[in-house]
Structures are given as C-alpha cells and as structure tokens.
Amino acid sequence: MDFQHRAGGKTGSGGVASASESNRDRRERLRQLALETIDINKDPYFMKNHLGSYECKLCLTLHNNEGSYLAHTQGKKHQTNLARRAAKEAKEAPAQPAPEKVKVEVKKFVKIGRPGYKVTKQRDPECGQQSLLFQIDYPEIAEGIGPRHRFMSAYEQRIEPPDRRWQYLLFAAEPYETIAFKVPSREIDKAETRFWTHWNRETKQFFLQFHFKMEKSLAAPPGQTVSVGVKRPPSLITGLGHPHGDSMPAPPPGGIHGMPPGAPMPPQMPPQMPPPGALPPHLRPPLPGDG
Length: 291
Known about the structure:
Layout: H1 19-37, E1 46-48, E2 54-56, E3 61-63, H2 66-73, H3 76-92, E4 116-123, E5 130-137, E6 148-153, E7 166-172, E8 179-184, E9 188-189, E10 195-200, E11 205-212
Antiparallel strand pairs: 1-2, 2-3, 4-5, 5-11, 6-7, 7-8, 9-11, 10-11
Helix pairs in contact: 1-2
C-alpha cells in the first residue's frame, strides 16, 4: 500500500484520530490533572447515589466513575454554574461589619494643675543672637513619663484670634495641665548647640533653650562698626555740602549790583597787604626805628 500521500499520516504510524478519540483523550488528561490538584472528598457538590454512580449536585449530572466527574468539574458548564452560585450568595449575604481596629488604651490621669516655670531672656555676647531659656518644674510627674514639647502655629490654636506675628510653644506632662508660651513667630535656629533640651530626673525639672536666627543687618560704612542685630538709623542730615567748599554760589537772577545781567564777571584780584608802617604798633612786626 502507498502511505506516502495519506493525509495526516506517514509510514509506520496510525491514522488520524477521530473526534471521539480526541475527546476521550482530553477527558483523560483533565481527569489526571484534577486528581493531582483536587481532593474529591472535600467537594461539596460531589455525591454518590445508591446505584453506585456519581452525581454533581450543582449541575444535576450523572457520572459512571470518579474520572468522569472530575473531568466534568473542569468543564465550562460546571465553572459557569460555580460563578453564578458565588454571585448569588454574595448578593443575598448580609453586609458584614468591617473588622474592628485594635484600640490603644489611653491612660487617663486626674489633672493636678499647672506646673511652675521660669523664662529667661538671653543674648549671645559674641554674635548677638537672642534666645529663650525655659525651666519647667514637674515634682509630681507620673512614673515612667517624660515631658514633651512642640511648636504650634497661631492658626492651629482656638483660644485667641490668629496672628501671624506670634507662635506658641507647648509643654505637656501627665498629670499636669498643658501650658503654652506665646513667642515671636521668627525662624528658629535648629543647630545642635543652639537648640537643646534636658530632663533632670532627680530634681524633676525640664529645660529647653532655643535661639532665633539672625536678621540681616545694614552694611556698616568704612571705619565704623554696627552691632549685630541692631539696624543703624539713617543720617538725619543728608544732601548738604561742606560749608567751606571751593564752589561759589550762582549769581542772583538780576546780576551783581552795579553790573548788567549777563555781563562777564570781573577777575578777582588777590587781597593787597598794607605796608608795615601803616599798621598800628600792636598789629605790625617791630621796625628798626622803634624803641
């Protein structure tokens, strides 16, 4: 026989598989895959009837063996019914409340009043920086709690009308009330040596010191020094020349007395000194004829 020109075949091989054979092979591959991934005993829709066959309670189909049922579960009909059942259950199920967040218990203390404090204004003698030193006393502070502080903008507080020229420095420590200080709204110097805090556990005192940044000052003229942070006021007398200057004032509009307007000015002659004999004795030098 001539096998050379047979469609889909070659010498030594079988013929082309029919549609039924292809479907049987596909179902066998799906059954093997389902046996590896699915536990049939945990399937809620799998049921074995009294006749020894298997049923799918979801699709209401009968199967002769487990392989046939597993192949059915991988088919389009079973998967569509699964999606439809899940959508129906989600629609009918009541809305469950969201899981509650873990609540952190807030420690409650009975307030005992405001702490004592002391504020000191300082100025650095070297650079002239202004600073504030706060000393807060907490003799009855709770065990295991340290004082805290923060800067608050004038627009955060609700006690006074907001004013952009001021800011607030707050101190808090339980069981004392929170206190605030109203300070100028200037930029704070955050350098390590210009901003520091210290909590003395023995004396129960909290210290905080900060410096304001320097403002730009006017440049000093040569030969003069201007203190840092102090603006030099402008000169009260400006635009005046030297009283003994060489420049002569302009002639009046009508000209010099005795000369018509526009006439050339006469040359100025140097002053003539009188002879020595014409001066009085107390104004002239001694002459040979004097006694």
